[in-house]
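As the next step, I wrote out a protein sequence along with its fold in token form, included below for the reader:
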Amino acid sequence: MKKQGTLFILWGCLLLIISLIRYIEMRVVYTFFAEDIMNLFKIILPVIVITFTGYYLIEIRKDKRGRSKRKALYFLWISLIGCMVLINLIQYNVLHQINFKLQHPLFMAVTAITIIMTGVILKFFYFSLGGVFFGILALVASYFELPEQLLVESLAWFIAFVIPGFILNNKSYDEITNTKLTKIK
């Protein structure tokens, strides 16, 4: 695929915007009209991104290169969702409630590991580096209340997904995988 970073940019922007909207809902006084707009964004943006993701994944199936990497990435990100469910189940089993102030940094930490592994699978250092920063920001977020954690998460999505996504889009496939064929003389 020519623009391999597109999904990372889209998902990073979506999660950044949703985190900011959730922060605004918790900390800012706003009008009913603004609330309607935010609720509309929370519905429309995910639908657009999920639809584009489906289209993108269908189109990328035609490309035979990187099929095993794509499969590994599918399993990795689906496993992240499973881990998040397990975190909630364990937290509820131990605490007999869900503590969102605790849950949020834990989700960020397991997401950081997933982002690091995505960088390893893609052999793209900037995603792994973004995952490290995501993990550090998970620790930073644990010192704040939930609304401020959402601001930290917004920054984390920007650093871990949006910036590497743009870098990835500006590099060719051969530059990324270091498989450029050069003739030795």
